[in-house]
Amino acid sequence: MEFWNGAEDLPIYGYLIRAAIVYIYIFTIIKILGQRSMVSFHPIDFIFAVIIGDIVGEPLSTGDLPLGGPLAAASLIVALHLFLTFLALKNVKVRRVVEAEPIVIINKGEILVDQMRKAKLTVEALLMDLRLNQAHDLTEVDYAILEPNGQISVIKKSKYDALTPSDLDQNPTEKGYPSVLILEGVVNHSNLAKLGHNMAWLKEKVYQHGYDNIEEVFLLTADERNDKVYVSGRTVKSVV
Questions:
Q1: CB neighbours of 192 closer than 8 A, spacing ≥ 6?
Q2: Which residue would you say has higher pLDDT here, 116 or 150?
Q3: Which pTM value belongs to this model?
Q4: Helix, strand or coil for residue 111?
């Protein structure tokens, strides 16, 4: 088992086996830890990812290193990270230590210089984040908060908020969540049943949008509440 114990002249297939083992190991870790968007990474998550990558990455480039030791060390770090995350979920005090509290950068339209210095945030970076939040004019901003994940959330003054249907005394129907019913000519029978429809209904929708059969459809989605249908074909046609 040269690929596991390591060897100075480890053959290429040994590196390939190691790569497959590490990939499966990392994939399993991600599933155990749970899904979290990259943009919502907290600092401790970033440090954890860097450490794990460094530990399990070295045996992939150094053939004479055993694979068992790094995987065992990485498993211990994963266990500690899980334990710390569990404590943060159960205990508010631990959560405040693990996850930094939001920092108010703009309060009632006034920029808090001390808070900016505390967050090590430059004016240029603040203005950039405000623009990304569709807040180009500082006079429109009521609050700006630096969130624990490093992003800035913006609350505009009420008079600058966009009009909503409720402001106009309107009550539009809910949009619903679009479910994929056909993907690359293949029917998703599970989603079709969840929406309470059958194949006859689906074929009728396909025909109404100018397609002779289901195999011609690249993507078909339907909203769960109003049955609004979107269809796009495999060939160039008008998108409905």
A1: 181, 198, 199, 202
A2: 116
A3: 0.62
A4: strand
